[in-house]
Automatic annotation (TrEMBL):
PANTHER family: COLANIC ACID BIOSYNTHESIS GLYCOSYLTRANSFERASE WCAL-RELATED (PTHR12526:SF640), GLYCOSYLTRANSFERASE (PTHR12526)
Listed transmembrane segments: none
Gene Ontology MF annotations: phosphatidylinositol alpha-mannosyltransferase activity
Pfam family membership, one: Glycos_transf_1
Annotated EC: 2.4.1.345
Native organism: Blastopirellula retiformator
Family of this protein: Belongs to the glycosyltransferase group 1 family. Glycosyltransferase 4 subfamily.
Domain of life: Bacteria
Name by which UniProt lists this protein: GDP-mannose-dependent alpha-(1-6)-phosphatidylinositol monomannoside mannosyltransferase
All residue ranges annotated as the Glycosyl transferase family domain in the record: 237-398
UniProt entry keywords in alphabetical sequence: Glycosyltransferase, Transferase
Entries under InterPro entries matching the protein: Glyco_trans_1, Glyco_trans_4-like_N
């Protein structure tokens, strides 16, 4: 190890700036909270700052973990910008949409970008760590000289035409990408290029997300939904926990519930859709009204309850017996899967993308190889009807999370990663590879 490496390790006090667009509490934001906590543990004397592009519940949860949270509101037109919700649009409609955005909002973004760059420069970060595509693009423009730029890669970008092209340009300033799964790493390398990318799996706080249950938490879950009904152990509580992103499988879940009611009407189950809309990108989310209407059309409105995201999400998981993850396209990771596993719940998940890397099918959860309503309904019927299977899956799942996804392991990993960056300084990805290799000599 070099003398420089030793001095950084003995007296680490880096200036680390995190940047995130949303202030909601989706999976990426919950991961960010874990990173902030881990950074403080790895570098107790670090100057940690968080910039958000909007205000919201994330700010309150982040404030105890950082020195300062700064809100730099993104202009409304640009806050709603994104191509995640436009994949079904025609080519002409997409061209028209982007033309309107750029023609009417370029000057406001230029002014905002100037202010953002000044704020970043004033903070003099040694590590600039962005979380999400919008943050990646804008931090690449604001990266100061001598600062390592880290992108936390949560998304598949291969099918996002505009984002992919912009990221290909912005990645020229990238020092290191941290992908949340092997699937995300492979997609980034194929779509953006052979930048330096490492896998850093998402983690959960296994001291907060713990196996628990009982009538009290079940009753509380029913109360949060505004429903009335039994909360005793004779009823199996099944929940889908997700943002209202239009690919999270809410309609698939409702269709499967309807099929279960037809196939096994004797099963005593109560279903929950837990979450809500948290992003501002146009056309990217379903609404609760649409879900209510679909449930009513299927005749299952009395079987399905809706609960918004809660600050105390471990209590929500505690009230469930089964956690469902029904994404209809490849999932970059699937944090709700791991949180449910940590709470010792039986998990049913479509095994697409990074979700396939999380658990062993039939041992730690039930994996679905396709987004098929018949397969999901059959899995629900099987798990709801077998209490021993639920208990076995939950026990094995808890052990797997403690071994592979425990947040207590994150400070050590972050310490090693950031220390390499601090030693390397303002280097390109290829130069960082060389620096990492020589440190081991």
């Amino acid at each position: 190890m070099s003398p420089h490496m030793s001095s950084v390790s003995r007296n680490p006090s880096p200036r680390v700036l995190y940047v995130n667009a949303s202030a909601g509490l989706g999976g990426a934001e919950r991961v960010l909270l874990g990173l902030l906590k881990a950074c403080g543990s790895a570098f107790p004397d670090a100057e940690i700052t968080l910039i958000l592009f909007e205000d919201g519940p994330l700010r309150e949860l982040a404030e105890p973990l950082v020195g300062e949270v700064i809100i730099v509101p993104l202009p409304e037109r640009w806050a709603q910008l994104g191509d995640g919700g436009r994949s079904g649009s025609s080519w002409m409609s997409r061209v028209s949409f982007w033309t309107r955005q750029f023609s009417s909002g370029t000057f406001s973004l230029w002014k905002w970008g100037r202010d953002f760059r000044r704020r970043v420069a004033k903070l003099r970060p040694e590590i600039l760590h962005s979380n999400g595509i919008k943050a990646h693009l804008l931090t690449s423009l604001a990266r100061p000289r001598g600062c390592s730029l880290v992108w936390h890669l949560h998304d598949f970008v291969g099918e996002r035409r505009l984002a992919k092209r912009l990221l290909q340009v912005a990645a020229k300033r990238l020092t290191l990408g941290l992908a949340i799964s092997e699937a995300v790493k492979a997609d980034f390398e194929q779509s953006i290029g052979k930048q330096r990318v490492e896998v850093l799996f998402n983690t959960v706080d296994t001291e907060r997300f713990v196996p628990q249950g009982g009538d009290e938490v079940r009753t509380r879950l029913v109360e949060l939904s505004g429903a009335e009904g039994p909360a005793d152990d004779s009823v199996v509580f099944v929940g889908l926990i997700a943002t209202y992103a239009n690919w999270k499988g809410h309609f698939l879940f409702l269709d499967a519930i309807a099929q279960c009611q037809h196939r096994a009407p004797e099963q005593n189950a109560c279903y929950f859709i837990i979450g809500g809309p948290i992003y501002r990108t146009e056309n990217s989310q379903v609404t609760r009204e649409e879900l209510h209407q679909h449930a009513a059309a299927l005749g299952i409105q009395d079987k399905v309850n809706f609960v918004p995201f809660q600050d105390a999400m471990p209590d929500v998981y505690a009230g469930l017996d089964v956690v469902v993850h029904a994404s209809i396209r490849p999932e970059p990771f699937g944090l709700a899967i791991v949180e449910g596993m940590a709470c010792g719940k039986g998990v049913i998940s479509t095994a697409l993308g990074g979700a396939a890397e999380i658990f062993e099918d039939g041992v730690e959860g039930i994996a679905l190889s396709s987004c098929d309503v018949n397969a999901l309904a059959a899995a629900l019927e099987k798990v709801v009807g077998d209490s021993k299977l639920r208990a076995d899956l939950g026990k094995n799942a808890r052990g797997a999370v403690v071994e592979r996804f425990d947040q207590r392991q994150l400070p050590v990993r972050l310490l090693a990663t950031y220390t390499r960056l601090l030693v390397a300084g303002d280097l390109s990805s290829s130069e960082l590879d060389y620096c990492s290799a020589t440190q081991g000599e």
